[in-house]
Amino acid sequence: MVHRSASTPSVVAVTGGYVVPVASEPLDGGTVLIEDGRIVAVGLDVAVPDGAHVVDATGRWVLPGFVESHGHVGIWEEGEGVAGDDVNEMTGPDMAAVRAVDAVNIDDEGFRDALAGGVTSVVVKPGSGNPIGGQTVAIKSWGGRTIDEQVLSASVSVKSALGENPKRVYREKGQTPSTRLGTAKIIREAFVRAQHYAAARAAAVTKGEPFARDLGLETLVRVLDGELAWDQHCHRHDDIATAIRLADEFGYRLVVNHGTEGHKIADVLAERGIPVIYGPMLTNRSKVELRDRGIEHLATLAAAGVRVAITTDHPVVPVNFLVHQATFAVKEGLPRATALEALTVNPAAILGLDERVGSLRPGLDGDVVIWSGDPLDVHARVEHVLIEGVSVYAWDDAAQAGRVVERRERFAG
Prior knowledge:
alpha/beta, Urease, subunit C, domain 1, Amidohydro_3, Metallo-dep_Hydrolase, Metal-dep_hydrolase_composite
């Protein structure tokens, strides 16, 4: 939970706006009522309790905070060079034991940018230099004294990579994997070890015997048990096919990340119910895997019935441009409703966060963003951001700049 200071109002009402819950129909002149950080009511005739802090959103659009489902905010810091680059532990191809939460700097400027772009939750992932990159973490974009007070879910997924990146990294080191064959081998062998580990651990428990823990194998067992998703970095259609093959072999929950050529096998992904976190879209063709990249392919995936989310892969594309990618995708054929879902309910559902974020409905966190107009209009801007009912960002018309409520202000005294 985001830490709530003593001065934080316990009841907040966002009133009078064009409320777009995303998971239900819009409400013109609606109210979102938040108590102790959670939404308790959304509607046209919501009674606002005496003493509630009222935020007037008349003439504005009110939406849930966006969810960036694949970012490196805080572990690949901007403007910090090597000192702020903790995105890849490339000293071995299997890094299942490492955790992104241990390297996130919540003062990274990217988090302030996230607020300016209406992004209130970020799934921070290790990079794609290793076949197995490590554990991801879902956090709120702002509000804690430490990262632990911003954690939304510490049990989200494990990042893995196929394709060019790991073969390039380890070919330069003169070790396995130097090919796609070798990358699949590393992943397959790791899961076989995890299966043996799980059996040996269960036997030791039954016998009441001590058992030596292995942090990496324990993580992979959680993937096999379905507790953690398998976030598979893959661009080319053949790498996506390999990802599916491996998931079938070991029975884990696959999420395709990037999916640049996913449109070529969109029917396969749809039939298998495999979601795609698509993007980043505002990039050049910087490597062979991206030669067939195109914004219009997201519409093809969605039309085939694939559940899609959109990613900036921050800082590859700045996190505050998440909504602009959605706008460009609409221009290239993605339905507007699907675009908003790809920023909110879909990423939340794909990564198991939908009991906390992704929509405006009772029971979810009070992560509310007030926009000057339709967020898919490039002229619209974020005017006010609340995370769990706490005001963390506001646009200052006079200064023509956004203002983040810094932690030193929230927790002074």
